[in-house]
Amino acid sequence: MKPTTSIVEHFQSNPLLETRHRRLAEQALEMRLPEGEDEGAGRAVLGQLGKGGMLSLFGGGGRDRLPECRALCAVREALAYRSPFADGLLAVQGLGCVPLALAGSEAIKRRWLEAACSGGVVAAFALTEPEAGSDLSSLSTRARRITGGYELEGEKAFISNAPWMDFAIVFAVLDPGGEQRAVGAFVIERGFPGLELLEPTELLSAHPLGGLRLQGCRVPEENRLGSESQGLDLALKVLECFRPSVGAAALGMAQRALEEALEFVSKRIQFGRPLAQFQGLRFQLAECATELEAARLLVYRAALAVDAGERDAALLSSMAKLKATEVAQWVVDRSLQLHGARGLIKGSPTERLYREVRALRIYEGTSEIQKLIIARELLG
């Protein structure tokens, strides 16, 4: 793809995307997203995403299957190109919806799934804890069976959408002393007695992040997703499906940064000629475009593998997430460097992208964890 090609033409020419995927991406690019990055703006963005059909990927109509990964990648790449804030909201809404679609009771689906897929409520996915990030074996939140349901004790940290959540999927250990630690998944609703929303955590970029404290939080039986031991498998299945889409979001941000750099070096005059005429800078642009296209091909190849249920889907998903997020960070950094001091101006596109892209190498499995997964798959 030539960097001068429009991003719409990129989606139209991608051989791994079907017509409906391309239409979703084009629709995402054309949406009129509300301004701002506070809760009011966030809920308005979700409403727009719901009206545009983006959120129906996650279970609208009560579907009990994973979202189509290629469609999700196309939408996320388009949204991240336009608004990393909107992309983040869509992704976390999906993480909260898909477990409901896969394993929720009919009652809990009626209560939350349709509303979430229309953008009317805010969902969260609460897996991480203060001492359990990459090491999920260290989960310490406990669920104790009581009459009519469960009582949860523990704390969740670094939870996206937590400050604004209407419901969250919370993962808790049911049998801490057993040989196989049973981890259950529960729908926790805002306002449940014993649920405390902790102070929001500020990040490099605008993102609703916070924690949940559960102190004798009572959860009805119908709010459990699947069996008492299905929670961890459910979480990992959802994260594996979403992993290539993190790479796709990184591609969108990096493509935007590269286009900003191309425009700038074509106009900026130094030593009597445009920066674009200096061979050293031309080589940097060539490397950025080549690395970006290579990462893009890997992302959509991994998405195809996930959709087809291929044996190597987990391997390719981790490769895609690793390659695309690392490349995107490098491309954004190069693009900012090409802007010189102008790239550092607060609120400029390159400065914002520099802050936005950094988290993608950490959330939903750090680059180091992806390398461990890749090595494990290779070694069998």
Give a summary of the structure in a few sentences.
The protein has helices spanning 7-13, 19-30, 39-51, 69-82, 84-103, 106-117, 231-267, 279-308, 313-339, 349-358, 367-379; strands spanning 123-126, 142-146, 149-160, 167-173, 183-189, 195-197, 209-220, 224-225, 269-270, 273-274. The protein is an alpha+beta fold and 380 residues long.
Describe this structure in words.
The strands form three sheets. The chain has a four-stranded mixed beta sheet. Strands 2-3-7-6 form a four-stranded antiparallel beta sheet, with no helix packed on it. With 380 residues, it is an alpha+beta fold. The chain is built from eleven helices and ten strands. Helix 9 runs antiparallel to helix 10. Strand 9 and strand 10 form a beta hairpin. The chain is globular. The protein has three domains: 116 residues, Acyl-CoA dehydrogenase/oxidase, N-terminal domain (Butyryl-Coa Dehydrogenase, subunit A, domain 1, Orthogonal Bundle); 106 residues, Butyryl-CoA Dehydrogenase, subunit A, domain 2 (Beta Barrel), CATH 2.40.110; 141 residues, Butyryl-CoA Dehydrogenase, subunit A, domain 3 (Up-down Bundle), CATH 1.20.140.10. It is 51% helix and 15% strand.
Which terms summarize this structure?
four-stranded mixed beta sheet; 10 strands; Butyryl-Coa Dehydrogenase, subunit A, domain 1; single chain; 3 domains; 11 helices; 15% strand; globular; alpha+beta; 380 residues; Butyryl-CoA Dehydrogenase, subunit A, domain 3; Butyryl-CoA Dehydrogenase, subunit A, domain 2
